[in-house]
Design a protein that fits this description.
Elements: H1 7-21, H2 33-37, E1 43-50, E2 53-60, H3 63-75, H4 81-93
Helix pairs in contact: 3-4
Length: 97
């Protein structure tokens, strides 16, 4: 749902998904920090190859892990304190929706 859309539009999509999730179970795989920050729960899904086989692992993220993951999505390999602050701010805004 987040391919080729801006941050502003991503936030609108995230708000709509949040509204929908009040009525029905909603699962969304995203690379958008705006959408991910609006979720009630956040899981990290990793797909790796092991001895010629694809393996997928899923892990629930607590609040501090969510901040790190959203900061990683925002900035990439080298995560800065500013990116962490922005991630925490995004997570703090979810209570408004």
């Amino acid at each position: 749902v987040d391919t080729g859309i801006s941050g502003k539009t991503s936030q609108k999509v995230g708000i709509k998904l949040r509204q929908i999730s009040k009525e029905v179970q909603t699962v969304c795989i995203t690379h958008s920090p705006q959408i991910a920050s609006l979720a009630d729960n956040h899981y990290n899904i990793v797909k790796e190859e092991n001895e010629g086989r694809s393996e997928t692992s899923v892990r629930y993220l607590d609040q501090s892990e969510r901040i790190e993951e959203i900061a990683r999505i925002l900035g990439g390999i080298n995560i800065t304190d500013k990116q962490r602050e922005t991630a925490a701010e995004l997570l703090g805004e979810r209570k408004n929706y």
